[in-house]
């Protein structure tokens, strides 16, 4: 009997195929809505049935290619489950948001569902080969979403996105092969089982030279950092975002980037626990994190295009995830801040997913209504688009880390938790926070307030199908940012035990 | 003694003669020959699949052995022949003497099948020549300048490489005193007898290098694949070239395994140069047909990695060979399908082409709107060629790279992976043209007889990688092949 994860994958795959075969917009969007809705429902039921504590749950394991040790192995823990929910939630809301998409609607919705399936697969795979397959599968829908529904420079952006991230994935693939090979050579069992391999490497049970283990970590890290993306490997992201359709941008920023962060927790931390691994990787990750935060902040200040600004803000927020991971593994006298940093980084992944979806969603509405995203050409939108202004302001405030919203909880945990281990880095990152607030507020002030730019003409407010998903997300941002049972359960019941468990493989007190 | 296992070959041989009767069938215009060929190939294919992985069964004093290797290769050859023949029914309708096309095609298939089942240098060479001689005139089937030029080039180079190969084989025979392949292995492993055997080896590698179109022996292949009609190119690059690989597996791996340390560096260089040159030159092509030709050179380079791994470490030979066989299979499907689809674009059936630029990438613009089914199939084939999971092309390539890493050849795997990344660029470009550019034509009716074989290939590409028995077959065949060479 297939378990819930297999059902989600199947529902989405079948839904994608049926959607592709539909003839009209109406049929396409209804099939897409139903199948993404079922997927969301199953993932919420999984969340409700999730037993607080560490360990993989909802596991399914079938041998697939026994001669190579490849298995269909899936399961989620407190790290994977919120990501699965994020993927299904955002995809479901994207289907609603794109309700008015008329251009090749059947293909559009089919690609969204395919994307959803690939993302759930990435976050639920417990076999490296399967993980890689889903990881690469996410490229194809996004390639088409940018290429077919994208802006004027879509050709360049789509192919850049495809090749850039494909090369990074291939580095990861080689690292996976190397892990597979050395483990097989030393222990005699050739397997791609993720849990088994990571356990073997984290305990140093595979006696290989430090050169190799560092090369493996380096390959993996490259794959993940490009995906996150970390400065200086970020150049594909602004291009992809600027040209992608709004739904593509939402999926890209809200869920696709999380694959990189997920890899840090799932793969990099256990590998760094290997006694032969260089402890310098802690510094490397911390530097990438802080550089991403600072660089993206200053570049965002100079942006004229609202969407590009939001794209750079994503890079900055993912920088917090790197910083949190570095803070969690770095050496500290007490375990409490390290767990705090790790939980905060995991919380940041979920929180940034929903916040950035609001930002890209509202920028998309503005572009749709006014035909431009250039901040200077906007102004005074509150007068004509009060509902949008409300949603967008909420999103921007959440993004700059206003207390009472989910982003604050996450970033506060990361900074507080990392401070004892990496005080200098945290101070540098906090220096950036001022400017983060500055570019958010400045952009909002120029775009939404002030005198109305009459050249824009008579514009209409946000459509109802665009409003509903964004409103749901804003509500969720506030729910996850204020003390209440839902937020507590996610933070303390689901994420914290897993964060503790992930760190428990590291030597006492952390690395360095 | 039962000859049941040779039935597929006999059916193909008989039908190759029967189709010539097409001239006596009124108003047939090749359709009679086409249907007979389809039925003959289908029946043979079913027989091969029904018997599946058989235990080695020798015939005719051990000169011919039917085993899991020959079965899997016969399956590949028959599948490619089937794809080409189905499209051929539509293609030959208005051609001069269409039955010749089918007869030659069936003889070529027969030659390939004989190579697959031969266990002795003599039948191996006979099969090789049968397949080659049948394909030389096929390249000139349309009787126009480019095709004839391609055919003559192919003939000259083919004859030359056969001579080189035969010369090399004569040394091997002179040294070992036998033409039986396992006995050659046995004799050579007992006593290597350099340098005569080494000299033979060099000629054999060069001879097979020509047939496999490894760089620097590849120039003819580009001109021939480009000049010949598309369907013939499909047959040449998907089946005829694969025959060179099975022959190479047999002679180099089985027969010359004792000499493997001597060909390790040479083949490694050939593999690296082949995939790099193939991919780099393919990336700058504006003609899809030439792009496919160069890409098939590049894929030969990936497959050649299997030879390198085997010569480096016998321990990992099985997985390397299995990877090679899997990639031969997946590439046969992908490339065959892509060439067949390119033929209807070039023929102007689903695109409008300027004269002289029938294969230009521009002709694929907007194909997603003009011919949605064809475009979707082509897109899947292209992505599979580029090695995107979960398509068959990814799995087969991954197994090859995996074997390279297992054999401590990380550098080779890295070069392979970089090549693979580069190749995705030019494959994705075709997809971009099909879906993102504006179409020139209105929606057209897609010709079923062309789309059907492409669809068969695409379904194979979609499912075979995910289907575990595929791997069992490949590993079983690899195991058998190594056993023949006396590897424990």
From TrEMBL, chain A:
<keyword id="KW-0472">Membrane</keyword>
<dbReference type="GO" id="GO:0015990">
    <property type="term" value="P:electron transport coupled proton transport"/>
</dbReference>
<feature type="domain" description="NADH:quinone oxidoreductase/Mrp antiporter transmembrane">
    <location>
        <begin position="125"/>
        <end position="434"/>
    </location>
</feature>
<dbReference type="GO" id="GO:0003954">
    <property type="term" value="F:NADH dehydrogenase activity"/>
</dbReference>
<protein>
    <submittedName>
        <fullName>NADH-quinone oxidoreductase subunit M</fullName>
    </submittedName>
</protein>
<feature type="transmembrane region" description="Helical">
    <location>
        <begin position="6"/>
        <end position="23"/>
    </location>
</feature>
<feature type="transmembrane region" description="Helical">
    <location>
        <begin position="281"/>
        <end position="302"/>
    </location>
</feature>
<feature type="transmembrane region" description="Helical">
    <location>
        <begin position="422"/>
        <end position="442"/>
    </location>
</feature>
<dbReference type="Pfam" id="PF00361">
    <property type="entry name" value="Proton_antipo_M"/>
</dbReference>
<feature type="transmembrane region" description="Helical">
    <location>
        <begin position="388"/>
        <end position="410"/>
    </location>
</feature>
<feature type="transmembrane region" description="Helical">
    <location>
        <begin position="161"/>
        <end position="182"/>
    </location>
</feature>
<dbReference type="InterPro" id="IPR010227">
    <property type="entry name" value="NADH_Q_OxRdtase_chainM/4"/>
</dbReference>
<dbReference type="GO" id="GO:0016020">
    <property type="term" value="C:membrane"/>
</dbReference>
<comment type="similarity">
    <text>Belongs to the complex I subunit 4 family.</text>
</comment>
<feature type="transmembrane region" description="Helical">
    <location>
        <begin position="208"/>
        <end position="226"/>
    </location>
</feature>
<feature type="transmembrane region" description="Helical">
    <location>
        <begin position="30"/>
        <end position="50"/>
    </location>
</feature>
<dbReference type="GO" id="GO:0008137">
    <property type="term" value="F:NADH dehydrogenase (ubiquinone) activity"/>
</dbReference>
<keyword id="KW-0812">Transmembrane</keyword>
<keyword id="KW-1133">Transmembrane helix</keyword>
<dbReference type="InterPro" id="IPR003918">
    <property type="entry name" value="NADH_UbQ_OxRdtase"/>
</dbReference>
<feature type="transmembrane region" description="Helical">
    <location>
        <begin position="462"/>
        <end position="481"/>
    </location>
</feature>
<feature type="transmembrane region" description="Helical">
    <location>
        <begin position="70"/>
        <end position="96"/>
    </location>
</feature>
Automatic annotation (TrEMBL), chain B:
<feature type="transmembrane region" description="Helical">
    <location>
        <begin position="409"/>
        <end position="428"/>
    </location>
</feature>
<keyword id="KW-1133">Transmembrane helix</keyword>
<keyword id="KW-0472">Membrane</keyword>
<feature type="transmembrane region" description="Helical">
    <location>
        <begin position="448"/>
        <end position="467"/>
    </location>
</feature>
<feature type="transmembrane region" description="Helical">
    <location>
        <begin position="100"/>
        <end position="118"/>
    </location>
</feature>
<keyword id="KW-0560">Oxidoreductase</keyword>
<feature type="transmembrane region" description="Helical">
    <location>
        <begin position="265"/>
        <end position="284"/>
    </location>
</feature>
<dbReference type="Pfam" id="PF00361">
    <property type="entry name" value="Proton_antipo_M"/>
</dbReference>
<dbReference type="GO" id="GO:0008137">
    <property type="term" value="F:NADH dehydrogenase (ubiquinone) activity"/>
</dbReference>
<dbReference type="GO" id="GO:0016020">
    <property type="term" value="C:membrane"/>
</dbReference>
<feature type="domain" description="NADH:quinone oxidoreductase/Mrp antiporter transmembrane">
    <location>
        <begin position="118"/>
        <end position="423"/>
    </location>
</feature>
<dbReference type="GO" id="GO:0042773">
    <property type="term" value="P:ATP synthesis coupled electron transport"/>
</dbReference>
<keyword id="KW-0812">Transmembrane</keyword>
<feature type="transmembrane region" description="Helical">
    <location>
        <begin position="370"/>
        <end position="389"/>
    </location>
</feature>
<feature type="transmembrane region" description="Helical">
    <location>
        <begin position="196"/>
        <end position="222"/>
    </location>
</feature>
<dbReference type="InterPro" id="IPR001750">
    <property type="entry name" value="ND/Mrp_TM"/>
</dbReference>
<protein>
    <submittedName>
        <fullName>NADH:quinone oxidoreductase subunit N</fullName>
        <ecNumber>1.6.-.-</ecNumber>
    </submittedName>
</protein>
<feature type="transmembrane region" description="Helical">
    <location>
        <begin position="325"/>
        <end position="350"/>
    </location>
</feature>
<feature type="transmembrane region" description="Helical">
    <location>
        <begin position="291"/>
        <end position="310"/>
    </location>
</feature>
<feature type="transmembrane region" description="Helical">
    <location>
        <begin position="6"/>
        <end position="25"/>
    </location>
</feature>
<dbReference type="InterPro" id="IPR010096">
    <property type="entry name" value="NADH-Q_OxRdtase_suN/2"/>
</dbReference>
<feature type="transmembrane region" description="Helical">
    <location>
        <begin position="69"/>
        <end position="91"/>
    </location>
</feature>
């Amino acid at each position: 009997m297939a378990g819930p994860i297999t059902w989600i994958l199947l529902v989405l795959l079948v839904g994608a195929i049926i959607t592709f075969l539909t003839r009209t917009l109406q049929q396409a969007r209804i099939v897409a809505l139903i199948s993404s809705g079922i997927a969301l429902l199953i993932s919420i039921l999984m969340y409700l049935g999730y037993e607080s504590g560490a360990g993989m749950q909802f596991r399914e394991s079938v041998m697939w290619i026994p001669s190579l040790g490849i298995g269909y192995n899936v399961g989620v823990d407190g790290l994977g489950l919120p990501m699965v929910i994020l993927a299904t939630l955002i995809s479901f809301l994207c289907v609603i948001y794109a309700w008015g998409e008329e251009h090749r609607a059947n293909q559009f919705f089919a690609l969204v569902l395919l994307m959803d399936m690939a993302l759930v697969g990435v976050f639920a795979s417990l076999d490296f080969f399967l993980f890689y397959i889903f990881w690469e599968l996410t490229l194809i829908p996004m390639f088409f979403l940018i290429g077919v529904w994208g802006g004027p420079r879509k050709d360049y952006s789509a192919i850049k996105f495809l090749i850039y991230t494909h090369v990074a994935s291939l580095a990861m693939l080689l690292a996976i092969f190397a892990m597979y090979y050395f483990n097989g050579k030393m222990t005699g069992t050739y397997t791609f089982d993720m849990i088994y391999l990571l356990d073997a490497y984290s305990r140093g049970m595979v006696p290989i030279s430090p050169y190799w283990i560092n090369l493996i970590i380096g390959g993996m890290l490259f794959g993940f950092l490009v995906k996150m993306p970390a400065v200086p490997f970020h150049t594909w992201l602004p291009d992809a975002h600027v040209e992608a359709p709004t739904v593509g941008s939402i999926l890209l920023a809200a869920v696709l980037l999380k694959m990189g962060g997920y890899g840090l927790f799932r793969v990099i931390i256990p590998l760094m626990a290997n006694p032969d691994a260089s402890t310098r990787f802690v510094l490397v990750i911390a530097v990438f994190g802080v550089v991403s935060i600072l660089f993206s902040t200053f570049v965002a200040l100079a942006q004229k295009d609202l969407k590009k600004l939001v794209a750079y803000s994503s890079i900055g927020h993912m920088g917090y995830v790197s910083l949190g991971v570095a803070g969690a593994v770095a050496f500290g006298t007490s375990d409490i801040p390290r767990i705090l940093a790790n939980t905060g980084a995991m919380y940041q992944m979920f929180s940034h997913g929903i916040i950035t979806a609001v930002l890209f969603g509202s920028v998309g509405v503005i572009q749709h209504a006014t035909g431009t995203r250039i901040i200077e050409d906007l102004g005074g939108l509150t007068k004509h688009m009060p509902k949008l202004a409300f949603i967008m302001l909420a999103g921007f405030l959440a993004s700059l880390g206003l207390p009472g919203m989910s982003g604050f909880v996450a970033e506060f945990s990361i900074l507080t938790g990392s401070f004892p281990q990496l005080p200098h880095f945290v101070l540098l990152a906090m220096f950036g926070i001022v400017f983060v607030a500055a570019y958010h507020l400045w952009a909002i002030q120029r775009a939404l307030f002030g005198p109305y730019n009459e050249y824009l003409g008579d514009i209409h407010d946000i459509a109802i199908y665009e409003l509903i998903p964004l409103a749901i997300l804003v509500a969720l941002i506030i729910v996850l940012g204020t003390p209440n049972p839902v937020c507590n359960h996610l933070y303390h019941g689901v994420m914290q035990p897993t964060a503790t468990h992930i760190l428990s493989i590291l030597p006492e007190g952390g690395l360095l | 003694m039962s000859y049941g296992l040779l039935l597929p070959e006999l059916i193909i041989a008989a039908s190759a003669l029967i189709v010539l009767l097409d001239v006596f069938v009124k108003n047939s215009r090749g359709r009679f020959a086409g249907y007979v060929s389809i039925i003959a190939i289908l029946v043979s294919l079913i027989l091969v699949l029904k018997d599946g992985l058989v235990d080695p069964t020798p015939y005719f004093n051990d000169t011919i052995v039917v085993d899991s290797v020959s079965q899997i290769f016969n399956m590949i050859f028959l599948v490619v022949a089937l794809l080409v023949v189905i499209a051929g029914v539509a293609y030959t309708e208005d051609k001069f003497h269409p039955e010749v096309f089918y007869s030659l095609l069936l003889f070529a298939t027969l030659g390939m099948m004989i190579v697959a089942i031969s266990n002795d240098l003599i039948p191996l060479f006979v099969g090789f020549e049968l397949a080659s001689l049948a394909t030389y005139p096929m390249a000139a089937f349309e009787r126009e300048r480019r095709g004839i030029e391609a055919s003559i080039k192919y003939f000259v180079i083919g004859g030359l490489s056969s001579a080189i190969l035969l010369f090399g084989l004569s040394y091997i025979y002179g040294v070992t005193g036998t033409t039986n392949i396992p006995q050659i292995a046995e004799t050579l492993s007992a006593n290597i007898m350099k340098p005569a055997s080494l000299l033979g080896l060099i000629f054999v590698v060069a001879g097979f290098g020509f047939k496999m179109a490894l760089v620097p022996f590849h120039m003819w292949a580009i001109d021939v694949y480009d000049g010949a009609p598309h369907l013939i190119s499909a047959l040449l690059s998907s089946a005829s070239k694969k025959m060179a690989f099975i022959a190479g597996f047999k002679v180099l791996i089985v027969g010359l395994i004792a000499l493997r340390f001597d060909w390790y560096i040479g083949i490694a260089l050939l593999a690296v140069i082949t995939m790099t040159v193939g991919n780099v030159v393919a990336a700058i092509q504006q003609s899809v047909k030439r792009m496919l030709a160069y890409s098939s050179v590049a894929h030969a380079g990936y497959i050649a990695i299997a030879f390198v791994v085997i010569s480096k470490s016998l321990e990992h030979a099985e997985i390397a060979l299995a990877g090679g066989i899997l990639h031969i299979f997946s590439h046969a499907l992908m490339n065959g399908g892509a060439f067949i689809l390119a033929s209807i674009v070039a023929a102007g059936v689903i695109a409008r082409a300027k004269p002289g630029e029938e294969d230009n990438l521009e002709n694929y613009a907007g194909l997603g709107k003009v011919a949605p089914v064809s475009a979707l199939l082509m897109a899947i084939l292209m992505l599979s060629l580029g090695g995107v999971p979960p398509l068959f092309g990814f799995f087969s390539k991954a197994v090859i790279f995996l074997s390279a890493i297992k054999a401590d050849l990380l550098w080779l795997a890295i070069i392979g992976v970089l090549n693979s990344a580069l190749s995705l660029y030019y494959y994705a470009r075709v997809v971009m043209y099909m879906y993102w550019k504006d179409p020139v034509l209105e929606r057209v009716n897609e010709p079923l007889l062309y789309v059907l074989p492409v669809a068969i290939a695409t379904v194979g590409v979609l499912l075979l990688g995910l289907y575990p028995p595929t791997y069992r077959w490949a590993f079983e065949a690899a195991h058998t092949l190594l056993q023949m060479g006396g590897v424990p």
